[in-house]
Design goal:
Layout (H helix, E strand, L loop, with lengths): L3 H16 L3 H13 L1 H32 L1 H23 L17 H13 L2 H10 L11 H35 L2 H24 L8
Length: 214
């Protein structure tokens, strides 16, 4: 079955991905600051469903489709790169704001919060790359049922991502207050996040790897 080394490797990759600023983090933090922790948790539930959809679709053959039609996979990555580039531009442009900078947002219903969390994750290129390219690299056909390995390793990624994101949701308000009292730090955080988003966009746009079928 799945080896301990594979579980640890997926955990490390998942931790690195979730700590890298992206659409999920930006949405969860903005909602947690604007509407409170409950709104952040409801939004996180939508994000979790998005991961489950990716996990199920990948193990039921989505990666096979992208392997057969690599142009489709490339188009999705380029679309994700364009989206991240836009987020980076909005963060770095003159007058841009930090994800932890408190600003007025209209209060959304629980249904809308959940739906937006779901859509944000489904349109998140990092989620697509995680399930279609990274996790399959740790599946070993000689170690047993391939689909079971895919679901188990995906579950590891989901557990790591949800744990970290929940911590971010619970701490977002405190971090916002801390940075709000230190404008210099807020600007540094904004530039760091914008720079990371831009680097991820370039990496996605220039990556020529193909999805590995699970």
């Amino acid at each position: 079955m799945v080896t301990t080394s594979s579980i640890l490797a997926v955990s490390a990759v998942a931790l690195g991905m979730v700590l890298t600023p992206g659409p999920n983090m930006m949405y969860l933090v903005s909602r947690s600051i604007a509407q409170g922790r409950r709104a952040g948790i409801v939004s996180l539930a939508g994000v979790a469903l998005g991961f489950l959809i990716y996990l199920t679709a990948t193990n039921l053959g989505l990666s096979v489709l992208f392997t057969a039609v690599p142009e489709l996979y490339q188009a999705i990555k380029l679309a994700g790169a364009a989206y991240l580039s836009w987020l980076a531009f909005k963060t770095l442009r003159p007058g841009g704001t930090s994800v932890f900078e408190a600003r007025p947002l209209e209060a959304d219903s629980a249904r809308r919060l959940f739906t937006m969390g779901l859509l944000t994750n489904l349109l998140n290129p990092k989620a697509a790359v995680m399930y279609l390219s990274l996790i399959p690299q740790f599946v070993r056909p000689d170690a047993g049922h391939v689909m079971a390995q895919g679901f188990l390793l995906g579950g590891v990624q989901l557990a790591v991502s949800m744990t970290v994101n929940l911590a971010i949701v619970l701490a977002a308000g405190t971090i916002a207050v801390f940075l709000g009292r230190r404008p210099g730090w807020l600007r540094i955080q904004r530039w760091c996040m914008g720079g990371v988003l831009g680097l991820i966009a370039v990496r996605l746009a220039t990556d020529r790897s193909r999805p590995l079928a699970v």
